[in-house]
């Protein structure tokens, strides 16, 4: 989709559709009022008759509105004005774009970006609208032989802002929003691919292609190189699979030579059967999404490259399949990680931490400013936070605060959980330095505690995206989260955010 920014009056727009908001109950926004004046109260008449109350999520499409130059006017209900915050704004943009796309408008001129949202600038409104619009028209149909094509899809959106002196900032926000949306689309596409297509080798090839397209540096470590480095924890996960594991490194060098990089580590289990600790059958297909951490860090580096973000960013993806083949790791097996610490593998389904711990040890060689890992790590995190917030753990409070803030700004939120030493005891093993599971309670915390034992040398955070990376049920699909959170964090560090 194409996007642009302008400022102007709604009645003067030559457009397939002009989109304006109505608050509940029956209160026109400024743009709607201007249209109404030009149309000799056509809109207020309709509203008085009760066709549009302004309820959040409602829409009303009008044709041939007198006094205007557009083909259609779309009224979008915004809910109560007092309650018009981030969520209501994003929902309004989503219903506007969905309606435009389904009702034959080739282009739309959207005045919702003029409406003030509590504590948010117009740049924020534009950035968010761009991301939400792209997200709304996203489809994953590459395996459908008959695609349900939208007959006349929406091709062009113009966002209107009220002040001319904000045009430059809005323009920049638009570009940021587009880059983030492209990163999210990549993350979703990779994640939605089935496990028989998206293997560790496929992820490695994708990284190599991205490197040549976006001038990134790419390195793929094969099994023998990982053996030489002593990554026996990572390798133990791949043993039951026919697919060779890969360790992918991609680097965006947008900063000065001696700027320390931010390192993002993404869990890349392309299918998690549980291994010998086999998972139950229901919903096991969703374990193709166990590489959503990997997908999100690849999406993030793509967005950073598109924006030419002036920072150094390194992404590391440990990738493997977790399968129960004859050579698979057995419960009770003990392995030595790259750090030298030994691990008793009591449950082969707690494999994410086993591949991450070696990748996190490897991360130290990049002399990172900060390391953030992103992983669909625990079902327990979904129990704790549901599908709204990502679980956040950190060994540094300033970093935790920055990430929470970035998540709020992006409307891609994270909630901090404890990483207290008291939980470490649960990982005791009678035979090795630690066990790979900590028992039934506080499962997302003990998983984070396990990782914390490999990240003592640097500032680190862990994002458990098990509940937020994809949706189940009828609208099953990847969400592209937490690309927006990560990009807001990086933009802020680069001084590119208002
Ligand atoms: N990939 C799963 C976590 C997961 C499960 C994410 C369901 C989203 C939905 C992970 O590898 C796993 O299996 N974790 C186990 C850990 C347990 C064995 C300690 C879990 O959460 O059950
Ligand atoms: Mn598992
Ligand atoms: Zn897993």
Automatic annotation (TrEMBL):
It is found in: Cytoplasm. One of its GO terms (molecular function) is metalloaminopeptidase activity. Binds 2 manganese ions per subunit. Its cofactor is Mn(2+). It catalyses: Release of an N-terminal amino acid, Xaa-|-Yaa-, in which Xaa is preferably Leu, but may be other amino acids including Pro although not Arg or Lys, and Yaa may be Pro. Amino acid amides and methyl esters are also readily hydrolyzed, but rates on arylamides are exceedingly low; Release of an N-terminal amino acid, preferentially leucine, but not glutamic or aspartic acids. InterPro entries: Leucine_aapep/pepB, Macro_dom-like, Peptidase_M17_C, Peptidase_M17_leu_NH2_pept, Peptidase_M17_N. One of its GO terms (cellular component) is cytoplasm. Mn(2+) 1 binds at residues 272, 349, 351. The keyword Nucleus does not apply. The active site is at residues 279, 353. One of its GO terms (biological process) is proteolysis. Keywords: Aminopeptidase, Cytoplasm, Hydrolase, Manganese, Metal-binding, Protease. The keyword Manganese applies. Its EC number is 3.4.11.1, 3.4.11.10. Residues 347-354 form the Cytosol aminopeptidase domain. Gene3D superfamilies: Leucine Aminopeptidase, subunit E, domain 1 (3.40.220.10), Zn peptidases (3.40.630.10). Mn(2+) 2 binds at residues 267, 272, 290, 351. PANTHER family: CYTOSOL AMINOPEPTIDASE, LEUCINE AMINOPEPTIDASE-RELATED. Belongs to the peptidase M17 family. Presumably involved in the processing and regular turnover of intracellular proteins. Catalyzes the removal of unsubstituted N-terminal amino acids from various peptides. This is Probable cytosol aminopeptidase. It comes from Candidatus Accumulibacter cognatus.
